[in-house]
Every structure is written in structure tokens, then in C-alpha cells.
């Protein structure tokens, strides 16, 4: 599986957006479209997967401080997909936790 360092991902997003904006103003939208598409793809990947993939590599190497730093870069943990592509376990139907009587 292709793994992109999270800081490299942020840099590629910035370069793609800036490069696309420069090309759009200089030559038109269609010359900038591949740059905007690349930025959009990287942003969607970041939102859906967060920093879990890069944090997992540090976890396997038992570098817990680096793992914590990477997980803190996650935009919104509630938006992350689980392995089935469904909602997180506490958001699924029927799993509302213990009932208070």
C-alpha cells in the first residue's frame, strides 16, 4: 500500500493548490485542473483516513510519542471510516451503550 508521510501530504496539498491557482490565472482552468484534482484527492484521503496509516507505522516501531503526535494531526476523528467503510462502533444503530434504568 502506498504510504505518504503526513507532512509530505500537507506540502503536496499546498503546492497543488498554489500551482493550480497560478496556472488558472495565467493559462485558464483546464491547465490547472490536474493540480486541483490532485489536491482534492489528497484532501479527501486525509479526511477519510486521517493520520491513522502513518501513525500505525510508528506504533509498529513502538514509538508512542511520534504516534501520539501523528494522531493529534487528525482533523476530525468522528469523520474517520472504519474497515467496513461504515460508521464508528458507537455511531452504529443499536449500540447506544449501557441503558440507565
| Number of strand elements | 0
Structural class: mainly alpha
Helix content estimate: 55-70%
If you average the pLDDT, what whole number results? 78
**Measured on Cα atoms, how large is the radius of gyration?**
18 Å
Taking the sheet with the most strands, its summary is: none
Uncertain stretches of 5 or more adjacent residues: none
**SSE succession:** HHHH
Note the quaternary state here.
single chain
End-to-end separation in angstroms reads 48 Å
Percent strand: under 5%
Count of the domains: 1
Total of helices: 4
Shape category = elongated
Q: Can I get a quick summary?
A:
This protein has helices at about 5-25, 30-50, 50-60, 65-70. It has about 100 residues and is mostly helical.
Topology (elements, then pairings):
Layout: H1 6-27, H2 29-49, H3 52-60, H4 64-72
Helix pairs in contact: 1-2, 3-4
Structure description:
With 101 residues, the chain is an all-alpha fold. The protein has one domain. 60% of the residues lie in helices and 0% in strands. Helix 3 packs antiparallel against helix 4 (64-72). The protein is elongated, with a radius of gyration of 18 Å.
Features:
mainly alpha; about 100 residues
Amino acid at each position: 500500500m502506498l504510504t505518504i508521510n503526513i507532512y509530505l501530504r500537507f506540502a503536496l496539498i499546498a503546492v497543488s493548490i498554489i500551482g493550480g491557482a497560478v496556472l488558472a490565472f495565467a493559462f485558464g482552468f483546464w491547465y490547472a485542473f490536474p493540480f486541483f484534482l490532485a489536491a482534492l484527492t489528497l484532501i479527501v484521503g486525509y479526511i477519510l483516513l486521517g493520520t491513522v496509516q502513518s501513525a500505525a507505522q510508528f506504533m509498529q516501531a513502538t514509538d508512542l510519542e511520534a504516534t501520539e503526535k501523528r494522531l493529534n494531526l487528525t482533523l476530525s476523528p468522528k469523520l474517520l471510516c472504519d474497515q467496513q467503510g461504515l460508521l464508528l462502533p458507537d455511531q452504529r444503530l443499536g449500540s447506544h451503550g449501557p441503558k440507565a434504568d
